[in-house]
Structures are given as C-alpha cells and as structure tokens.
Amino acid sequence: MNLNLQVLSFILGIFFFLIILYNIRTKKLSPSYSVLWIILSLLLILIPIFQALFIKIARFFGVYAENLVYILLIGFLLIYVLYITSKVVRLNNQVKELISNSAILEDELKELKKR
C-alpha cells in the first residue's frame, strides 16, 4: 500500500472520528447509530498503523491490499444499510400499531360521547 493511501486513510479516519464525536456531543447523532461509524473510522486509522498485518490478510484472501480497502468499505456500507433497513422496518411496524391503537381509541371515544 503506497504512502499516499496510508496518509489519506489515517487522516480520513481521524476526521471521521472527530466528526462522529462532535455529532454525538451535540446530539445530532445517537450513540447507537454511531457505533458502526466509529468502527469504520478506527479501521481507517488502524490500516496504516498495522500495514503488515493488513497486507497478510489481503494476501490470504488473494487480493491486493488496496482492493481489500474497497472490499471492506463496501462490506461496511452493506452492513450499515441492512442495519438502517431493520430500524426502518421496526419503526414502520410501530407506526402501524400506533395508527390501529389510535383508531380503536377514537372509536371508543365516539361511543362514550354518544352515551
């Protein structure tokens, strides 16, 4: 892995990490949603530090180290999309349940007003 890519990875990792911490402090991002982003930033920071290990892992899988970075980033994004999708589905189910509960309460209120 060339030096430019190592420096870029390290700087991006630090930058992402600081942005995530700032967003958590200002409550723009909840800690539960930020866990995967923190892992990504730490990965970007650790890749240049443990380059030899990273190259061994890449050789084990039969790819170049630079390509392994892209594979890991794509894998991270797929995991994150799955995580967000599961959250959206859960929230969608909660909204449907709230709508049906609201309709039931509205009917009960109408019946009580008739009496």
Concise synopsis of the structure shown:
The protein is mainly α and 115 residues long. It is built from 4 helices and no strands. The chain has one domain.
Q: How many domains?
A: 1
The fraction of residues assigned to DSSP E strands is under 5%
Which spans of ≥5 residues are poorly predicted at pLDDT below 50? none
The N- and C-terminal alpha carbons lie at a distance of 79 Å
Most strands sheet: none
Number of strands: 0
Question: What can you see in these coordinates?
Answer:
By secondary structure, the chain is mainly alpha-helical. The protein has one domain. The protein contains four helices and no strands. The protein has helices at residues 3-25, 31-49, 51-61, 65-114. The mean pLDDT is 90.
Write the SSE topology.
Elements: H1 3-25, H2 31-49, H3 51-61, H4 65-114
Essential attributes:
115 residues, mainly alpha, elongated
